[in-house]
Here is the input.
Amino acid sequence: MMNDAFDLRMMETHIEVHKFRAGAIVIATFLSLMLQAVVPVYIPKFAVLDLPLLVTIYFGLSRRNPSTGLLLGMVIGLLQDSLSGPTVPMGLYGIAKTIIGYLASSIGARLDTEHPAARFAMTMIFFVVHHGFVTLTRRVLLAEPEPWFTLRLLIAGAVNAVVAVFVFALLDRLRRS
Amino acid sequence: MAGIPSRHKSLVLLAGVILLQVVLLAVQIKRDSQGRLLRVWTVGAVSPFQRAGAKGIGNIRGTWTHYFALQNTSRDNEQLRRENDELKLQVNRLQSKAGEADRLAALLNFRQTQRNVPMLAARVIGTSADSASQTIYLDRGEHDGIRRNMGVITPDGVVGKVVESYRDTAQVLLLTDRESGVGAMLSDSRIQSPVGGTGEPLLSMKYIPTDDTVNMGEHVVTSGMDRIFPRDLPVGVVTEIKTGRPFQQVRVRPAANLQRLEEVIVLLTLHPLEQKKEPAAPPEGAAGKSVGGTAAVNP
Here is the structure.
């Protein structure tokens, strides 16, 4: 029933729901976490990227189903938490990415987000919002003083948005035609 | 969820999933735990790939630098760097034999003063999956004798301490992490103060009274008070001093290059380390033993 209503809304707005090859989401998720955990050893500046976040945003925007979007965000976030240091309790990135997964899939269901410029803007906004939720969790739940906004955040957001345009184009190839 | 309108189901799911994670956070804070089970599973699943990835990247880079890019220069540089390291160690060895209570000599002398401390060389295979925490993963773990709270160093200075030890992997909290700290003192004035991470490349020496004199470029060494690191290991160099009340704000650049760590040395002991230096240096071969058949460091 829910799917029917969802499909009907898709038809009304003429926005396509993309399906992916088997295992594409799992492999993309795993690869993003692996690269995030290995590459900075050799290229420290790589740490500015948040590949798990980009994967969450991409599949949220493409699948356009808020339920699967938020669940994927939760899984990716919790895996990222578990690979992080002791200053990152389980759930910190989990909560932020759950919300981003939900927002991305909700927006993806209403807007066409296939154009590179749209993807750039979306990623930039989601990056800042993601940081906002991480900061909120740190401040409210963990009582840790964390700045809301820094110039570095803006630069990191722009870098991630540029990279997202190319990563998303790469992930488009995993779609089932 | 039968009575909930379909358009609200995802919203209810969102609220439920967030609530669940908030509870998870609260439980961790209350019990002061880190969700170890899930971390063990994830690290167990990922570390073989990290190891393979690190090896693969190392091989690719090695192939590239040795055979394609600046073939001879790169090789010569590597050779010279190795020779330079050996010469540095030799210089330090001579200094210690001359009986000078020099800061750098402490590192080389470490093996002699800590005869019973076995050390293990380990390779860095990964880093934390986020930019908020400063941790690295090593290719050695419980099987090799690594346990929580063991100190980690490089020939340049202190790196951090082991915060989690898994079967074949260990997680090290770097000095630069906000939660990190080491007992330290200024090498000239011998003023003691812990040095902690700030989450940024520079460390912070927090409790130096305003009346005490601190000089730019002064070396900071371990005080041995944390009972993890022996005395006089290099921690860093003072690079910034700001006046404040009641304490000065002193910034320290780490001695070890924490941004580019590829190999480290783990101090395989949980016993409080001896702080007193021994006057005579025993022969090299008499130094500690390896654990579990792995290569022990013998500087």
Chain A touches chain B through 51 residues (CB under 8 Å).
